[in-house]
Every structure is written in C-alpha cells, then in structure tokens.
C-alpha cells in the first residue's frame, strides 16, 4: 500500500532474488489477464519442487494448460454442480448438528474448527467420493494426509532455499526433494488408482470430479480408437494428472471455502443489520426451512452481495501473478521477457479511488447498478479472463449452501474472544492473526414460540 501511495499504479520490488513488476493500472490489467493472456503471458511463476502438484492446472503452462483446462471445464458446469448438490447439502446438515452441540452449551466457537471440517468433507467427497466426518473421525487416513498436505510453512528451509537460491532447485528436484511430503503424494496416487480400478468392476452412480475425469479419459480414448489417432497426442488426462487435479481441488477448495466462511460469518456478526437482511432473504427464498436448491441458492441477490463484499475486503489470494513470455509494450510501459507481473488484488480492493471508505463493510457496493458503473478490473477475487479460477462456481455453491443453512438456524454474535477489528496476516493467503471466534444463537421460529 505504501509503494502504491509513493510510486503510483506501477512499481517494482524484489521477492527474494526475483524482480516483480506490480501493476494497478486497469487498462494494463485487462491486457495482461485477457487481451494478451495467451500470446504474451503465461501462468504464474513455477517455483519448482511441486511434488504431487507438478501435473496440476495450477502449475501447467501454455498448450498443456489449455489441454487440462478444456478437459476440466465440463466438470464445473451448472448441470454438473447440481448433481453434486446433494453431497454438499448432506455435509451442511452435519455442520448444523456440530454447531448445535456447541450452541446448546452457550460456548463460543472457533470458526475454523467447524468450517474447516465442513470444507474438507465436501471437497474430499466431491473429489474422491470418500465419505468422511473429519470433525468426529480425525484418525481417518484421508483426513490425516490432507492435513499434512495443508501444513504449508513458508519459513521452512526448503521454501527459503527456493526463494534465495533458485539455482539449486534442479539439484533438489533430482534428489526428489519436494515442498509437499512424498508420502502424502503416494497415498493419494494409490487412492486414485484403487478407486479407478474398483469402478471398472463395480457400478458407481456417484457424481464426483474424479469420476468425471475418468469418464473424460474413457471418452477421449474411444474417440482416438475410432479416428485412428496416435495416443502420444492424446488430450485425455493421464492417471498422474488426474491425481494432481483431485489434490488441487482439495488444496484450493478447502482453504478458500473454510477461510471465506469464517470471514463472512465475522462480518455478519459485527454487522447485525446486514445479518438480519440476509436472514430475511433466506427465509423468503426457503420458507419454513425448505431444502435449498441450486438455482435458488445461486440466485439470492443479497447473499451474493454479502459474499462479494467479504471477498473484496479479504480476497483468497492477495495478488495474481503472470509471467511475460516475450517483450511487450503496454500503455508505453515495456515489460521484458521473463518478467513476473503481479497484480495486487488486495490493494486494488481497498483503493479509495474505486471504493469510498474502503475499510467499511458495505454489501450495497455490489448492487447491479453499482457493479455496472464500476471498472470490472478493480475487483479480482477469483482472477479474470481465460485463466480465472476454474472452481469458482463450485466454491460459491459450497459456501452459499453452508451459509444458507447457518442463516436458517442461527444468529451469529460477537463475544469477548472476538478480535475486533480483524487483523490480517498476509502470507500465501490472507488469514486473521488470531482465530475468528463467535457465538451461535439458535433462531426461534414463530411456530416454536407458539
């Protein structure tokens, strides 16, 4: 923020030994993320030592990225997400039961302790069709291995070596040193192989990302056999790529959903007028606690505004990155080949030029009229353009279903343990310096009062 105030909309910094060009000019952002996203820019920089993620869409580049994206895109259509809704609803009901236990005892609740298991259960079930209850079954091998994978430490010796001595990365890769534990990668790769073999002999009616990827693999192979295409040019995902995407769904989905649900709950508890208005919308959309449907959940306007404002104040990632593939001049600024271009979403989201009193929580910033009057490139919680977050709608469904059930059943309140205002720790993701703690009070309906 200080660099922006001092140098304007374009400035440079060093990230370890890597020079970065930070850009807040929206015309340049549009060129980088949309207009020239293929011809001059590629995915974020690859730190190396990616272990199980080396074949994921997060790391893949250029034509390989396009191939993986084209295979995955059909799995995130609204039709596919509707098929997964029963899984999400089931775990949302479990979430309500877990919260009820605490609410009955009038205990404050650490939000990560309830939204973390909910997110983990949903993303694991929709990725692998593995039914777990991570809150009540912490010894489940899937739970244990996911937790190991999620224990990122940016101050670990491996990470520091990657940043300070990047020339050592090729040697470390030859030594099979990864930022993520090899045992975890082996566990999930074996799980994918086992599930895939099982489904060859057992009929499976479950809809999950793994099955959709396996189906696309079969479909592509059948096309090749019919057309006589060489398998070396296949568009189908390999087994290693399928494992990598499934892991990526868990890694990205868990953190985004559990953190954002904690943040939106905090803003509702500290803005009771907003919470009341949201409860009214939920009650009108689903009278008498009717079962949430996909279309109705996704079309609730005020809920969308509440989530949008939460993601403005605390985006999942503080900045977006692209790497320049060849020299380019944009708006008179020359960007040399191999330059890392960083778009600081967090600073954009708090720029008073676009957001009056930016620190205030105001869902009304996202009415239809307000959105249409604003430059779309000043709001980038999920990126923009062809490389935006592929799982955006899935994450929104997961979060909105959970919040619908929460609003049907509880009123959220701050307590003495609640940190007000939130202090954020900006590392790989934006998280509060202290866990968010709130009280959940059971809502009493008019029928119960009678």
Give a short overview.
By secondary structure, the protein is α+β, with helices and mostly antiparallel strands. It has helices at 2-7, 26-35, 62-72, 78-104, 111-128, 141-150, 157-164, 169-174, 182-201, 209-227, 239-269, 272-285, 294-298, 301-313, 345-348, 368-373, 392-409, 446-449, and strands at residues 10-15, 18-23, 41-42, 109-110, 320-324, 328-330, 333-335, 340-343, 410-413, 424-426, 430-432, 437-442.
Protein described:
Helix 4 (78-104) packs parallel to helix 17 (392-409). With 450 residues, the protein is α+β, with helices and mostly antiparallel strands. The chain has 18 helices and twelve strands. The N and C termini lie far apart (55 Å). Its cofactor is heme. GO terms for molecular function: heme binding; iron ion binding; oxidoreductase activity, acting on paired donors, with incorporation or reduction of molecular oxygen; steroid hydroxylase activity. Keywords: Endoplasmic reticulum, Heme, Iron, Membrane, Metal-binding, Monooxygenase, Oxidoreductase, Transmembrane, Transmembrane helix.
Characteristics of this structure?
450 residues; five-stranded mixed β-sheet; 51% helix; three-stranded antiparallel β-sheet; alpha+beta; Cytochrome p450; 18 helices
């Amino acid at each position: 923020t200080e660099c922006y105030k001092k140098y304007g909309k374009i400035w440079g910094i060093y990230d370890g030994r890597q020079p970065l060009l930070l850009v807040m000019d929206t015309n340049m952002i549009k060129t980088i993320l949309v207009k020239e996203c293929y011809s001059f820019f590629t995915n974020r920089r690859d730190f190396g030592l990616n272990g199980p993620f080396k074949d994921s869409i997060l790391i893949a580049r250029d034509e390989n990225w396009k191939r993986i994206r084209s295979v995955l895109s059909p799995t995130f259509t609204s039709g596919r997400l509707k098929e997964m809704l029963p899984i999400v609803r089931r775990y949302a009901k479990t979430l309500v039961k877990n919260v009820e236990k605490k609410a009955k005892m009038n205990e404050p609740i650490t939000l990560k302790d309830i939204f973390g298991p909910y997110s983990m259960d949903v993303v694991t079930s929709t990725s692998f069709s593995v039914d777990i209850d991570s809150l009540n079954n912490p010894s489940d091998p899937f739970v244990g291995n996911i937790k190991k994978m999620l224990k990122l430490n940016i101050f670990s010796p491996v990470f520091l070596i990657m940043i300070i001595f990047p020339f050592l990365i090729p040697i470390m890769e030859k030594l099979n040193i990864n930022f993520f534990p090899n045992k975890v990668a082996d566990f999930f790769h074996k799980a994918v192989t086992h599930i895939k073999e099982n489904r060859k002999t057992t009929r499976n009616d479950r809809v999950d990302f793994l099955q959709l990827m396996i189906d696309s693999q079969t479909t592509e192979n059948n096309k090749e056999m019919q057309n006589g295409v060489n398998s070396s040019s296949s568009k189908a995902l390999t087994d290693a790529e399928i494992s990598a995407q499934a892991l990526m769904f868990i890694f990205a989905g868990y953190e985004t959903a559990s953190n954002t649900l904690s943040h939106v709950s905090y803003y509702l508890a500290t803005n009771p007028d907003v919470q009341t208005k949201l409860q009214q919308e939920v009650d009108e959309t689903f009278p008498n606690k009717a079962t949430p449907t996909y279309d109705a959940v996704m079309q609730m306007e005020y809920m969308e505004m509440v989530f949008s404002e939460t993601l403005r104040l605390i985006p999942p990632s503080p900045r977006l990155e692209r790497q320049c593939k060849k020299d380019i001049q944009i708006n008179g600024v020359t960007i040399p080949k191999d330059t890392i271009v960083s778009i600081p979403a967090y600073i954009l989201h708090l720029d008073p030029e676009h957001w009056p009193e930016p620190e205030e929580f105001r869902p009304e910033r996202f009415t239809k009229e307000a959105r249409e009057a604003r430059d779309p490139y000043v709001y980038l919680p999920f990126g923009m353009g062809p490389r935006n977050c592929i799982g955006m709608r899935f994450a929104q469904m997961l979060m909105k279903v959970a919040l619908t059930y929460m609003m049907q059943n509880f009123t959220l309140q701050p307590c003495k343990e609640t940190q007000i205002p939130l202090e954020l720790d900006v590392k790989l993701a934006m998280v509060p310096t202290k866990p968010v703690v709130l009280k959940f009070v059971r809502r009493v309906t008019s029928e119960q009062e009678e």
